[in-house]
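U., I forgot to send this yesterday:
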Amino acid sequence: MKAIAVDTETPGRPLRWAEIPDPQIGPREVLVDVHATAVNRADLLQRAGGYPPPPGAPETLGLELAGVVAEAGGEVSRARPGDRVCALLAGGGYAERASVDERLLIPMPDDWDYARGAAVPEVFLTACLNLFEEAGLQAGETVLVHGGASGVGTAAIQLSRHQGCRVLATAGTGAKRDLCRRLGAELAVDYRNGFREAVADHLGASEGGVDVVLDVAGASHLADNIECLGLKGRLVVLSLLGGSRAELDLSLLLRKRLRIVGSLLRARPVEEKAHIISRFRTRFLDALIDGRLEPVIDRVMPIEEAGAAHAVLERNENLGKVILQVREER
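Result:
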């Protein structure tokens, strides 16, 4: 089969559509003919050599897919050949075929195209896990979502609003802030001009601060995030785009009784991911199917142009997901 391979011997580590061995499936796995996958910042980090796949995961990039089950292992009971599915992966999505544990599959409605299916797993599961399980976000609470126009950001805004929460967001351009507001954010501010004052002015002194911050920046946002949080607030850090080291005034943690949580999805065991998917399906899948929740797609590009798709994320141009089409729609 063909897959995207990283040329580690050439400066810039270009991506090439090249022949590699077909994946093998285990007793509880299915082989999926991949129709679409999606670009995530983890792919860019792995390509650069800074984020190796977990032990046992494919070296091929790609953390999600949408496609059709081609073959099922002998102990598979939840899927059969011909099923249209999307799935969460630890790697291997940038390819014509991928092996997937049956517990990581999400059934795909017949009226969804594959691009839409590929835009769901990584960002909606990441947002759901970190908002409601790691942060314990409850109806009526207020959440600040950084990177509100990213894939995870657009999912987080929608999930929070769907659960009856107030949403504030940050984004770097006017178009991105407009998108955040269309999705339900009552405030969208430019993080480059500072967000702490805008959040405080919007909430007013009586509110005391936000209940949850979903952060992708890390060090560069840490002090302001702590200031934005109210009593018993929770900060969940998903990535470190703004650096990994910062000073922290621990007295604020004590006075406000705050919690700081670091969270990654990719390296979790299959059993844990299966529970996350099961809870997401129970809570939100119906809303995705009937359109109350909607994946935001910036553009769809051919898999052969994966390098150009990476450049879109590197330049922070995307509003929502960048999809890679592996097979033509039929």
